[in-house]
UniProtKB/TrEMBL annotation:
GO biological process terms held by the UniProt record: methylation
Protein name per UniProt: N-6 DNA methylase
InterPro entries: DNA_methylase_A-5, SAM-dependent_MTases_sf, Type-I_RE_MTase_Subunit
Any single Pfam family the record assigns to this protein: N6_Mtase
Native organism taxonomy: Bacteria, Bacillati, Actinomycetota, Actinomycetes, Mycobacteriales
Top-level lineage group: Bacteria
Domain DNA methylase adenine-specific intervals: 153-379
Length: 689
């Protein structure tokens, strides 16, 4: 095959084909002269011919038996064009027969010859279950590749939205349901609705609208496969259309029992002028700067009486001055049931604590005078180093909102809850600002009492004692008399070349492959430089097999982890479970018969070492790990130094724990005194006077 026609693959993709890590592929390149030469890319990220790589792996007996889907993605990616690749992936599902759902509208498009041949090759080689798995795999890779252009709602959030809408839907008890997503993207929210509702109705209709025809085609393809073989195609109808829901809604005549939507944020050109007299604005004309409130009213206008809508909105929609008249109208009409403040990282943009707005339609008796609204602050569901506890968050939100309308859910133990909430009369929020931000209204915290304060004081005293013990352990360290002992030094690079140290470089995992929440027993935490700088704990996790397939560097016990960025430079010994390392993180694996890990980490983390090995070759100051210096000394002496470095780390840890305990004590004292829940104990002089 001519090089211009060859399908390119990267080192990471070769690693997936072989079922090994990326480091193994790099070793093959160095050790085997027969390894195929690059056909493109760069020195740092070379590309190779898929055909040549497959032939070489097969000849070496290294071709992974389970790598069939891995061989597909480079061929789809080689189609080049984002739209062409997306439509080809959609066609792999749409070409399958029988389908798992009835399509009420089907995208019509033609593919170039090469793309169609690839689709035919793919669909001809998979069975029905394989079609669903293959499509999900290809869609995931496509979303990973175009993550900056296409955002999707994480499955955990989508499931929460669908479950909340199902609980609050007060429509008749008909055995048919219609769910609408007016900005459906690739169909993630509608797919969650299938999981929540399928099997409970004679007919479930999934309706969607999407401006991008490629995303609309992918949504139809995704939903056409159904949710499981137990749901008959005649029980599931799919009607996704291409169009602009706000400007010219192709689903204008539809009325849904549930509306789920994660609309685009901050769009100024949403049709403010041309839609000025639109009948959907029954709560007021949305200002140009408030497109989110246009989506809110659009969702309400498409609901059956008694229907429920759940939307993802930016926090500014709850407080901006321009939208207060519409918020006031929503409260007066009893249309807004709840606002849930999610923890940062729940969905893109991940740095923003997004809100869920829960709305209902068709209750004439619900007015501001007799209607209450539930405000929930779920920031506590984000646990440092472990991500978002979606299981607890979902159960608490559903319990607080109640199974039906205003019926309260089961009580929650506030001392154990990750959410804080308050139920307020809507009329109490009708002030000048009409600010619906939960954090401004929910109680600051649990009432302080003497027992709680006593526990906090006891914890602080215990930490202080631990710090004293750690400090005493360092009393064996003293200044060397005289000018000190001059020792020769070597570098990490020289130790690697000598074969007593292996150096592994961290890689960037695909954004959509990193999960938040609580990892399972066989999942691998993912640590990045931002994690090191914020909490020092991994901010997400990835299934172990995916980490292996992606060629990620996974640490082992006793590895020395080094941060290769000047502003966060550090080194430590890996003591816990295996961790996948992100960019600018390095794992050093020492030969225990030549190097002591604690000695190595202690020497490497010296600030002067980091400054000496620093480089400014790029826009950010980095540390050249290979240039870091290590003193030369016998193994026994290394171990003695290593024991001291271990005690230094212990002292540092206890110092941090004491600081956090002190912050808790200060916060409790301030909150309790300011809130009138604590007071100064009367002194003897006070009683005498």
């Amino acid at each position: 095959m001519h090089q211009s026609e060859a399908v390119p693959v990267t080192l990471a993709e070769i690693a997936r084909l072989a079922g090994v890590g990326r480091a193994a592929v790099s070793n093959w390149r160095r050790r085997h002269d027969s390894f195929p030469a690059p056909i493109g890319g760069t020195d740092v990220s070379p590309q190779f011919s898929l055909t040549e790589i497959e032939e070489w792996l097969r000849g070496q007996g290294k071709l992974h038996e389970g790598g069939g889907r891995e061989r597909l993605w480079p061929q789809f990616d080689a189609l080049g064009d984002r739209s062409e690749t997306g439509l080809a992936i959609a066609k792999t599902a749409l070409s399958h027969d029988p389908r798992g759902a009835t399509l009420l509208s089907e995208p019509k498009f033609d593919l170039p010859r090469a793309a169609q041949q690839l689709v035919d090759q793919t669909t001809g080689a998979t069975a029905r279950v394989g079609v669903r798995e293959t499509f999900d795999f290809l869609l995931g890779r496509w979303l990973d590749t175009h993550v900056r252009q296409v955002s999707s709602t994480p499955r955990e959030l989508a499931m929460l939205m669908a479950e909340v809408a199902q609980r609050l839907c007060m429509c008749d008890d008909s055995t048919s349901r219609t769910v609408l997503d007016p900005a459906c993207g690739t169909g993630g929210l509608l797919s969650a609705a299938v999981e929540v509702l399928a099997g409970g109705q004679d007919l479930l209709t999934l309706a969607g609208v999407e401006k991008d025809p490629v995303l609309a085609a992918l949504a139809v393809a995704r939903l056409s496969l159904g949710v499981s073989d137990e749901v008959e195609p005649q029980q599931l109808a799919v009607d996704v259309r291409t169009g602009d829901s706000l400007r010219a809604d192709p689903q204008a005549e539809l009325r849904a029992h549930m509306v789920l939507c994660n609309p685009p944020f901050n769009e100024r050109d949403w049709g403010h002028e041309e839609l000025a007299t639109d009948p959907r604005w029954s709560y007021g004309l949305p200002p140009r700067t408030e497109p989110e409130l246009a989506w809110v009213q659009h969702a309400l206008s498409r609901l059956h009486p008694g229907g429920a809508a759940v939307l993802v909105l930016p926090p500014s929609a709850a407080a901006r001055k321009a939208g207060r008249s519409i918020r006031r109208a929503l409260l007066r009409a009893g249309a807004l049931r709840a606002v849930v403040a999610l923890p940062p990282g729940s969905a893109a943009p991940h740095s923003v604590a997004l809100h869920l707005w829960v709305l209902g339609a068709g209750h004439a008796s619900r007015t501001a005078a007799n209607q209450s609204i539930c405000l929930i602050d779920a920031a506590g569901a984000a646990i440092p180093g472990r991500g978002i506890d979606w299981t607890t968050l979902s159960s608490e939100v559903k319990a607080l909102l109640g199974p039906r309308d205003d019926v309260p859910g089961p009580p929650i133990d506030e001392s154990e809850a990750c959410t804080r909430s308050v139920v307020m009369s809507s009329i109490d929020l009708l002030d000048e600002e009409v600010d619906l931000t939960p954090a401004r209204h929910v109680p600051v915290g649990l009432p302080a009492d003497s027992q709680a304060l006593g526990d906090i004081r006891q914890q602080f005293s215990a930490r202080l004692a631990d710090l004293h013990r750690a400090y005493d352990a360092l009393s064996v360290v003293d200044r060397v008399p005289g000018p000190g002992t001059h020792r020769g030094t070597t570098t990490v690079g020289e130790l690697v070349r000598a074969g007593v140290l292996d150096l592994y470089t961290g890689h960037l995992p695909a954004e959509t492959s990193v999960r938040t929440g609580f990892p399972g027993a066989d999942d691998v935490p993912v640590m990045t430089v931002p994690d090191v700088m914020s909490s020092g704990r991994p901010g997400g996790w990835i299934p172990r097999q995916e980490a292996i397939e992606a060629g990620l560097t996974v640490s082992q016990p006793d590895d020395v982890i080094v941060v290769g960025v000047t502003r966060a430079f550090s080194a430590w010994v890996e003591l816990g479970s295996a961790t996948a390392l992100g960019p600018q993180l390095y794992a050093l694996r020492a030969d225990p018969e030549a190097l002591d890990s604690w000695f190595l980490a202690g020497c490497l983390r010296a600030p002067a070492n980091g400054r000496q090995a620093g480089t400014h070759a790029s826009s950010s100051a980095r540390v050249d790990v290979r240039k870091l210096q290590v003193p030369q000394m016998p193994l026994d002496e290394q171990r003695r130094h290593g024991d001291i470095f271990r005690q230094i780390v212990r002292f540092e840890r206890e110092l941090g724990e004491l600081g956090r305990a002190g912050e808790t004590l200060v916060r409790e004292l301030n909150d309790g005194l300011a809130g009138g829940r604590l007071a100064r104990t009367p002194l003897e002089d006070d009683r005498v006077g």
